[in-house]
Amino acid sequence: MKIIVNLDVMLAKRKMSSGELAERIGLTQANLSILKTGKAKAIRFSTLAAICRELDCQPGDILEYSSEE
Fold first, then answer.
1. Which pLDDT tens digit goes with each residue over 1-33?
2. With 0-12 CB in 10 A as exposed, 13-18 as middle and 19+ as buried, what is 46?
3. Measured between alpha carbons, how far is residue 56 from residues 5, 16, 21, 39, 68 in Å?
4. What is the model's pTM?
5. Residue 21 and residue 42: Cα distance in Å, rounded?
């Protein structure tokens, strides 16, 4: 089981930088980078909601499930 994080895709679609998003949601760029690269072990619903609010998207636009390892 693998969760794929498509945050970079949504950032590109919205023409927003990682730094701008991090500032808007009150997250450090380092923590956003960990999430963006798929190295995060968890994400708070409040953080996910803030990301979706700023990128005007749904959680499914950012997170994807893959059965392949």
1. 689 999 999 999 999 999 999 999 999 999 999
2. exposed
3. 16, 12, 12, 24, 29
4. 0.90
5. 19
